[in-house]
C-alpha cells in the first residue's frame, strides 16, 4: 500500500485547494447567492482577508447586517455596511435570517426579505460578475473589467488604504455610528465639500442637519481629494499638488498591517493598525492600536451655540490622552437618561426649583455646590461684574431659572446658566469654578468634586510619573543575552516562554555576521556618542532595508528586572519616533538596529552652511512636539527621554522629525510620581532640576524642547561662547531679553522668511519661554505646547524667570 500513499496525499492536497478556492473566489459569477445562515453566508477575497455578506448583529440573533469585514482576525471588524440611501446618510440595512442576496442572471445584485420584497440594491443592471478585492473593496464589474459599482464609492464610517474621497462626490461621506454596537447613523459626519473644504460636523441625530464644524482643512477653492494610500498615510491633496497630512501615522503598509480609519461614535477620526504579516506579529500586540487621531482632544474641539456638544445635554466631557478615550459624566444629583447611550445626556434626580418660591424659601430649600476643573462655556443668560462668590451663589439660588452659576475670581465675574447645559468639559486649565444648584439636605462631598479631584490626581500621575534609574535600552542587550544565544538552557527557557504565551522582548534578533555583512565590516560611520558608535548598513532582505547599527561599547547594568519596560519601548510606534528594529548579542558584540534616516540629524540640518526653509523648521518643531507628547502621554508606558537635543532628532526622506536614541530613557510607572537620579543629558539642554536634589519628571524633556524650539527659530546653537557680543552667547538668555523688549526681529535678523512670519516666530519664542521656566510645574505639558504652537489656544505672557540655569555649571 505504501506506493499509493504519495498519490493519496496529493489527492488530499488537491481537495484542500478546491475547498479553499470555493471559499476564496476571484470572480463571483451570475446566479450566485448568499443567505444569512449556513455555509454560503459570505464571499471571500482571493487571499481570504476580507469578506462580503451577512454579519449577525451583536445581541440580536435574528437580525443581520449586509457588510464587508476583515475575516482573518478574531474581531471580524466591520469596515462597510449597506445603507438604505446611497449617500451614506440612510439607515443601515438589517434583515432577518431567511433573507436572500442574489446576483441574478440578469446581472443585478438584489437583497430580498423573506416575503420576497426587495430591501436593498445598487440598481446597477447588466454586470458580468462581482468581485471581493483584498483591499476590502467589493465591486460589480462589467464584461470589459470596468467597475460599475463598488463599496469604496459609498463608505459608511470607515476608510481603507487605496480609498479616496474626492471633491464633487457629495454622496461620499463618513457618518459615525450611534455607539459601537449600534450601526444607526450617529452624531458626527466627515465630508469633502464641493467647495474643496474637508470638514467634520456634529449632526442633529437622527436628522441630517449639520451644526457648525468642529474641524476643517480651510482649503475652500483649493481642495481636491482625501487619500488613504498604501503606506498608511492619510492626506488631503490640493489642486497645486500640496499634501496636507490629516493623520500622523505612516509606514504601516498593507503588506504588514490591516489598516483602517474610522469616524468613531465620539466624533474622533482615528487611524488603527492590526498586525498582519508574520514579520510584524512578533513585534506587535494582536489588537487594533490607535496610531493617530484628529482632533487631539474632542472635548475641547466642539463648541457651538446649537447642539449638546461632544457629550449630551447637562453632561460634561473628560478626555484621557493616554488611552485616547472620551468619557461623558453627569454632575452631582444628575444621572444619565440611558447608561449605555450616554450621548442622550443627564437629567436632575430632584424636582427643579419652583418659581412660586419666595427668596427666603428658595434659600432654605436649595444651595450651590462647588465644582472645580469643569466648565459649560455656553448657555449664559445673565452676567454680573465686581461681585464676590458669595453674592454669585445667592443670585443663582433665588432665581428659579438659574440651574448653574460660573464664577471667575480673577475678574470677579459671575454668569448665570439655565438648563439644558451644553458643551461641558473637564480640563486642567480651567480657571473658573462651577456652582451647581441642588436641594439642601445632601451635604456630603460633591461627587463631581471628588471626580474632579481624582482626575487632577490622575493627571498629575500622567505628567509627573516616575522612572527606573537605569539605561533601559542598554539593559535590553543583556536581557536578550539572557533569553537568546547564551546557552542551550536559556534558549529552551525562551522557547518555553513563547509556547506558554508569555510576553517576551518583541525585537528581531540579528547575528553578528548578519550585521557585519550588512555594514560591509562596519565601515560607514554615521556618528558616535558616549555609549557607542553608529554605522550605516543595508539588510539582505527583499526590500534591501537601510539600517543604522549602534555598537554598544559601555555597558552600565546587568539585570533582568525591566523586561516589561524593554518590551514597551520595542513596541512604541509613532511617526515621530525612530523605530528600534532589533538587536544583536553575541559574546562581546552588543548592538542595536534602527531604521535609517536619510537626511541625518537636526544638528546637521539646522547648523549647516545654508539656513533651512522656515516652513521646514516649523514642521520639525511640531514633529518633535508630537513625538514627545506620544512618549509622555499616549504610549502604554510613559517615557522620559532625558536627552532631547538636535543630535537625537533625525530626519527622514521628507524631513519628518523623528526622536532617536533612548540610551538615557526612563520609563514611568503608574504608581510613582517622580524619580531621583544622577545628572543626565547634554550641556545646553539640561533642565535646572538636574542640579537640585528634587525628583525628575517629564518636564525635563519640555525644558530641552524649549531650547530646541529657540534654535529652530534662530538657526543657531544655544551656547556659542565665541560670539563677540557676550549678551548673545547664551540663546535662552538673549531670547528672553529680546522678548521682554519687544524686539523679536533681532532673533531672526537676516531671515526673510521668519520676518515674513514674525507673528508665528514671536508665538514660538513665547512657547519656548514657557518651556524654559525654572520651576518644572510652571512648564506646560506637551499637549499644551502643541496647542500653543498651532495657535489653538491663547498664549499668556510667560513669567520673566528669576534665572535660567546654564548647562555650563
From TrEMBL:
Matching entries from InterPro entries are given as:
Bulb-type_lectin_dom (IPR001480), Bulb-type_lectin_dom_sf (IPR036426), G-type_lectin_kinases/EP1-like (IPR051343), Kinase-like_dom_sf (IPR011009), Prot_kinase_dom (IPR000719), Protein_kinase_ATP_BS (IPR017441), Ser/Thr_kinase_AS (IPR008271), SRK-like_kinase (IPR024171)
Listed EC numbers = 2.7.11.1
Give the keywords, sorted. ATP-binding, Disulfide bond, EGF-like domain, Glycoprotein, Kinase, Lectin, Membrane, Nucleotide-binding, Receptor, Serine/threonine-protein kinase, Signal, Transferase, Transmembrane, Transmembrane helix
Residue stretches making up the Bulb-type lectin domain: 19-153
Q: How does it sit in the membrane?
A: Single-pass type I membrane protein
- Name the reaction it catalyses: L-seryl-[protein] + ATP = O-phospho-L-seryl-[protein] + ADP + H(+); L-threonyl-[protein] + ATP = O-phospho-L-threonyl-[protein] + ADP + H(+)
Q: For this UniProt entry, which segments traverse the membrane?
A: none
Q: Where in the cell is it found?
A: Membrane
Q: Which GO terms describe its molecular function?
A: ATP binding; carbohydrate binding; protein kinase activity; protein serine/threonine kinase activity
The main location is membrane
So which residues are the signal peptide here? 1-24
Sites binding ATP sit at 551
This protein's GO CC annotations? membrane
Tell me one GO biological process term.
Answer: response to other organism
Domain Protein kinase: from-to ranges: 520-805
* Family per similarity comment: Belongs to the protein kinase superfamily. Ser/Thr protein kinase family.
Official protein name in the record: Receptor-like serine/threonine-protein kinase
Q: State the species of origin.
A: Hordeum vulgare subsp. vulgare
Q: What is the lineage of its organism?
A: Eukaryota, Viridiplantae, Streptophyta, Embryophyta, Tracheophyta
Q: From the UniProt record, report the name of the gene that encodes this protein.
A: LOC123399666
